[in-house]
């Protein structure tokens, strides 16, 4: 059987949701897939579960390695992938049965190097579908990638993930594109920047087949423990890959990165001012106060305003005015009003 899509699944202590993930893969209507599970040093029953299903279905491949992180696990899977395209699934998540059939059909129809789809996220009981404003169901050429997609990676982070895409494996091999290992942040984003910088064609399908699950704790606890704001600052300060020097003027790069930083900060403000048993009110209040006083935020605010003022509504304008005034109390009241209005 000629393999159409190699699906790579890094696994680390994922037994709680792993069986649902495995079954969603085995039920794919595109049968010509291989499923490469990379057991990244799990100490629970993850390996046992994979081996049990491997005995029933020869499409399952299993690599075992000491714990090295998700990027190393994905790269190990890519080394043995035999398909035309590569896809990635996280072991906590699951996919619709027609996901890879849909993406692969679009890839073949338009001879695309990469196909992008939507993503559904589940967080604290709420479901949110991430869609994109790209032309759907048609081939998009190198000029579109250069003018629209590459700047998008700097301006926002909702396209960064690898799980809602399939990538032509020949292109990955030709340019030795891999996930950066042993970096503190942005592995998926960097991988996509490298890949799209070499891609000649892409297709976006307005289809939602991937279901992402946030499995550990509340949003407030997660952004505190994982220090998402600190990571956002690092991304803002970090120089993008060299390829951007050939594509986008440096002042535009700075403006796009400013939009991303302020957009991230605004979402964190909303989360921190949501009542939470995982963090006291005073700690949440203090964290917001620190965020809006951060020197990089102060630097990025005018550039965000210049770029976004024509597209934002009254509520966001008010929030920005409170950030400019460093009014933590004003932000708290605005968020409380927004929650009350939307309840």
Number of helices: 14
Q: Total strand count, please?
A: 12
**Main pleated sheet:** 8 strands, mixed
Query: Might you state the CATH topology name of the largest domain?
Result: Spore Coat Polysaccharide Biosynthesis Protein SpsA, Chain A
Low-confidence stretches: none
Global mean pLDDT: 92
Q: Report the span from N to C terminus.
A: 53 Å
- What structural category do the secondary elements indicate? alpha/beta
Count up the domains: 2
The arrangement of helices and strands along the chain is: EHEHEHEEHEEEEHEHHEEHHHHHHH
In CATH, the homologous superfamily of the largest domain goes by the name Spore Coat Polysaccharide Biosynthesis Protein SpsA, Chain A
Helix residue percentage: 40-55%
- Strand residue content: 15-25%
Radius of gyration using CA atoms only? 21 Å
- Going across the biggest sheet, name each strand in turn: 3-2-1-4-10-6-11-9
């Amino acid at each position: 059987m000629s393999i159409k899509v190699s699906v790579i699944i890094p696994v680390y202590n994922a037994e709680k949701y792993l069986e649902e993930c495995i079954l969603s893969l085995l039920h794919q209507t595109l049968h010509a897939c291989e499923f490469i599970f990379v057991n990244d040093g799990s100490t629970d029953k993850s390996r046992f579960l994979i081996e049990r299903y491997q005995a029933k279905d020869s499409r399952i491949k299993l690599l075992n390695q000491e714990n090295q992180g998700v990027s190393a696990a994905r790269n190990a899977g890519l080394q043995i992938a035999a398909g035309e395209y590569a896809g990635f699934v996280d072991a906590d998540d699951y996919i619709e049965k027609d996901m890879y059939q849909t993406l692969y059909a679009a890839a073949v129809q338009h001879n695309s190097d990469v196909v992008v789809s939507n993503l559904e996220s589940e967080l604290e009981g709420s479901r949110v579908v991430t869609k994109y404003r790209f032309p759907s169901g048609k081939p998009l050429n190198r000029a579109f990638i250069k003018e629209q997609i590459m700047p998008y990676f700097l301006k926002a982070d909702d396209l960064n993930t690898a799980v809602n895409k399939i990538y032509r494996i020949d292109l990955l091999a030709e340019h030795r594109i891999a996930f950066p290992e042993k970096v503190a942040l942005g592995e998926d984003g960097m991988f996509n920047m490298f890949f799209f910088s070499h891609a000649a064609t892409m297709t976006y399908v307005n289809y939602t087949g991937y279901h992402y699950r946030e499995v550990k704790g509340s949003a407030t606890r997660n952004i505190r423990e994982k220090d998402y704001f600190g990571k956002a600052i690092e991304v803002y300060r970090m120089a993008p890959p060299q390829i951007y020097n050939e594509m986008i003027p440096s002042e535009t790069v700075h403006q796009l990165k400013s939009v991303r930083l302020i957009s991230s900060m605004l979402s964190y403000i909303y989360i921190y001012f949501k009542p939470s048993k995982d963090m006291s009110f005073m700690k949440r209040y203090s964290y917001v106060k620190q965020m809006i006083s951060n020197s990089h935020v102060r630097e990025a605010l005018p550039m965000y305003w210049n770029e976004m003022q024509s597209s934002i509504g009254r509520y966001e304008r008010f929030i920005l005015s409170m950030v400019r005034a460093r009014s933590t109390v004003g932000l708290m009241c605005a968020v409380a009003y927004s929650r009350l209005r939307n309840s």
